[in-house]
Amino acid sequence: MGDGTRSNRPAWLQQYDLVGKIGEGTYGLVFLAKSKLASNKGKCIAIKKFKGSKDGDGVSPTAIREIMLLREISHENVVKLVNVHINHSDMSLYLAFDYAEHDIYEIIKHHREKVSQPIKEYTVKSLLWQLLNGLNYLHSNWIIHRDLKPSNILVMGEGDEQGVVKIADFGLARIYQAPLKPLSDNGVVVTIWYRAPELLLGAKHYTSAVDMWAVGCIFAELLTLKPLFQGVEVKATPNPFQLDQLEKIFKVLGHPTQEKWPTLVNLPCWQNDQQHIQSRKYDNPGLHSVVHLPQKTPAYDLLSKMLEYDPRKRVTAAQALEHEYFRIEPPPGRNALVPSQPGEKAVNYPARPVDTTTDFEGSTSVQASQPVSSGNAVSGSLAAPSVVAARPVPRQMPMVGMPRMPGAPGIAAFNLSSQASMAGLNPNNIPMPRAASQAHQQQLRRKDPGMGMPNTGYPQQKSRRF
Amino acid sequence: MAANFWTSSHSKQLLDQEEVDTVQPADKDKGITLDDLRVVKLHMTNHIARLAQQVKVRQRVIATAVAYFRRVYTRRSMTEYDPCLVAPTCLYLASKAEESTVPAKLLVFWLKKLYADDRYKFEIRDILEMEMKLLEALDYYLVIYHPYRALTPLLQDAGMTDLTVPALSLVNDTYKMDLILIYPPYMISLACIYIASVLKDKDTNSWFEELRVDMNVIKNISMEILDFYDNYKLPTEERVNAAMNKLAVKT
Fold first, then answer.
1. Interchain contact, B3 vs A73, CB within 8 Å
2. How far is the alpha carbon of A84 from chain B, nearest alpha carbon, in Å?
3. Among residues A17, A98, A103, A147, which one is catalytic?
4. Which end of chain A is more exposed for a tag (fewer CB within 10 A), N or C?
5. Are B141 and A91 a contacting pair at CB < 8 A?
6. Which CATH number fits domain A102-326: 1.10.10.60, 3.60.15.10, 3.40.50.150, 1.10.510.10?
């Protein structure tokens, strides 16, 4: 129990060393902590805090839905909820997850801004395969994720699960087997860039195919390092119709026709056609030229099946896993981040930036954000990624370069400084070799990603690279 | 999970009758008997349904709330967790879990309006605090399967859709017992169909045989339901108050 000075602190807090804040969303904050429990000592945990509400309406239904689903599901490619904690004094709720060092958003960004090279085919294919594998599990359990986007697809860092994909953020997920209300009732979902056309046109009863559309968009983004359909969202309208997003889609895939998509005419926003979208004409450069893939390749074939207009014809996760793309060289593996060729260097993805000035209460140890003096080895502003949650926009979080109080309550000073130096107190965020762990890391990466693992259901590994 | 009851947390948490029929030590100290426990749970089931009628939620929300309520008292005492507060809070939590959120304010309003007795009146804050305690008591397992889902397809398969109304009201009544904590929901649906068919003089033997389910379990559930109708129907106000007053005693 807490001592006299911190009597509000719940006992469970003692089992963690707080490292800092790693993300922020409308629901609350995400923290990185290390377990102090003997069974799990030093293990990194991401803790998602849901703000309490004393006079409002208690635990947010989003949190309830997320806990409810996460408590039932268990799959290698779905994030693992390890604990739930409650702080009764301020009525806040904490979900503790296994920590994942990377996510697809950061991986793409790193390649775009730092590596200036596309992501290796082996990595793209392995990430995609695992994403589909997790999604297939969810869909076969009647769960639609509804908010798939690169930042919600986590990838494990160093350790025995290195390079394994974990689908995260189930705040919008739904069991759709027997909903009490039409699925469209609880608000428009999915970040606009990854939103399926049937949603943009006001479909009332949508299906798991909305997730497959998002996977298609993510696949294209992995190939080109650029979001495929970057529409501008019109906010503050209860209407799902988003003209700019639809135009972005039509410009690449061509106009949808009733022939290709028979139920199109039944969709409310297509029927009303207030903005005369039906009669617009679009040049059709073709998907293949946007993603730079020859039309005859298996990769193109799979992508175009994910971006099929008619949700009933769109490829399912189960079908996609069987696609030829995953049978040809290089086959996908469990560790998506190992080098794909002998002698090739592994990409060193940067660790997640941690704001070590924020504690579990969300209060910052320094009052206001201020410009950073160049004398401090702090990059001007650090991206604030989220571990398990929607990425806030704008993503930049002012990082205060003040000396930290050593031994701040609940923070292990040693961890704090070592984390900070890796995490981004590093000019220009250049990935730095992690001296101590480097050798170990190399060894891990040399391992065959498919070997030594119990039967994980990966497509057969033929000649594996070493 | 959602596709398969057998892999769900609900399935893993099914209990034996004896485990459900346990009076918590703190309650035993106050002289609460197993019969008192049954009476209070039945009374609170009706309380939840009455409240639910006012705030207009679907039957499944009521069913989930009652399942939470009954599950809580297999782990916690009524001394520690006041059933008068736990009941509306279960409805509140179930409304969120079943995506038909009812504002706490509305529940508080109806509690005050429906009951003269102060025992049943609470403030929003009380409900919100209890919501968190309930989440803990339920160990954050919130998905509940109900006999309703299987009922319609089963009746269709048996070609007895004319039994829908009696079978449905039987299913509703099963929540006045602890069956949802003990048996897989589809077994409860089958027992209700069985009773309905006997009441309406329908021969279902061959259909049940083809199902290859354990008829002994179905018959046990049916016996319990019939036994319930014989013995408990509606406890008198005096009987409820007698049990509630035992709980109210300060130790």
1. no
2. 8
3. A147
4. N
5. no
6. 1.10.510.10
Contacts of B124 in chain A (CB under 8 A): 55
Hey, which residues does A358 pair with through a beta bridge?
A364
Give the pLDDT means over successive 10-residue stretches in chain A (466 positions).
51 88 81 90 91 74 89 94 90 92 95 91 97 96 90 94 94 61 52 90 87 97 95 75 88 88 85 72 79 93 96 97 96 91 84 85 52 35 38 37 37 35 36 39 38 50 43
Give chain B positions within 8 Å (CB) of A180. 58, 60-61, 98-100
Chain B hits for A57, CB-CB cut-off 8 Å, are: 101, 103-104, 128
Among chain A residues, CA nearest to B144: A68
Of B92, B99, B128, Cβ closest to residue A180:
B99
Whether residue B131 sits in one domain with residue B42:
yes
Query: Does residue B30 sit in the same domain as residue B125?
Result: yes
Residue A147 is among the residues annotated as catalytic for this protein: yes
Domain with residue B181: its CATH number is 1.10.472.10
Strand partners, A102: A155
Q: What is the pLDDT of residues B24-55, one digit of tens each?
A: 999 999 999 999 999 999 999 999 999 999 99
Sign of CA dihedral A208, A210, A211, A213: positive
Percent helix, strand and coil across chain A, each rounded to 5?
35, 15, 55
DSSP secondary structure letter of residue A114: I
- Architecture of the structural domain at A4-101+365-376+399-430: 2-Layer Sandwich (3.30)
* B100/A contact by beta carbon, under 8 A: yes
Nearest CA in chain B to A174: B99
Closest-CA residue of chain A to B6:
A72
Could you tell me the residue range of the domain that residue B193 belongs to?
147-231
Collapse the DSSP code of A165 into the 3-class scheme (helix H, G, I; strand E, B; otherwise coil) and give the result: strand
**In this structure, which amino acid lies at residue A410?**
G
The number of CA neighbours under 13 Å toward the Cβ of A451 is 10
* Residue A318 at interface with chain B, using a CB cutoff of 8 Å: no
